[in-house]
Design a protein that fits this description.
Among the domains are: about 1-60; about 60-90, no CATH class. With about 170 residues, the chain is mostly helical. Helix 1 packs antiparallel against helix 3 (about 30-55). Helix content is about 80%, strand content about 0%. Keywords: CF(0), Coiled coil, Hydrogen ion transport, Ion transport, Membrane, Mitochondrion, Mitochondrion inner membrane, Transport. InterPro entries: ATP_synth_F0_dsu_mt, ATP_synth_F0_dsu_sf_mt.
Amino acid sequence: MSGVGKKVADVAFKASKTIDWDGMAKMIVSDEARKEFSSLRRAFDEVNSALQTKFSQEPEPIDWEYYRKGLGSRIVDSYKEYYDSVEIPKFVDKTTPEYQPKFDALLVELKEAEQKSLKESERLEKEITDVQELKKKLSTMTADEYFEKRPDLKKKFDDEIRNDYWGY
């Protein structure tokens, strides 16, 4: 296997093992996003499979003796000499070092956005719980009980009354 092909296949294989597809699928809420996600996963699997099959196999060695019998040793030896003299240049990855810092910065930004999203989600869940609790108690709640939970509104109403502002 060529060095570059093996490296590409190894990276793709490792990437497929480190991606938590099931964990990501659980976070998706809309049907359209699920379709896009399954399309992405299918495309990734197809590319990964192609890389594994294409680059994981060694090329079959040439049976020079077979060709010597049919074509003659002089021409086959000439081809073998040319074949052996071919040098395949090594791949030098110039792209990864250029984009790796950008990718790392995006990962950091992603983690920050994830933390912010989780905090906001917790806050909203607490607010939903409070509103549901308030909805249950609203029919039997007194104004004083309500203003205990919402001191900002009590202050606003007291200020309006004190300033003789009745909203018209």
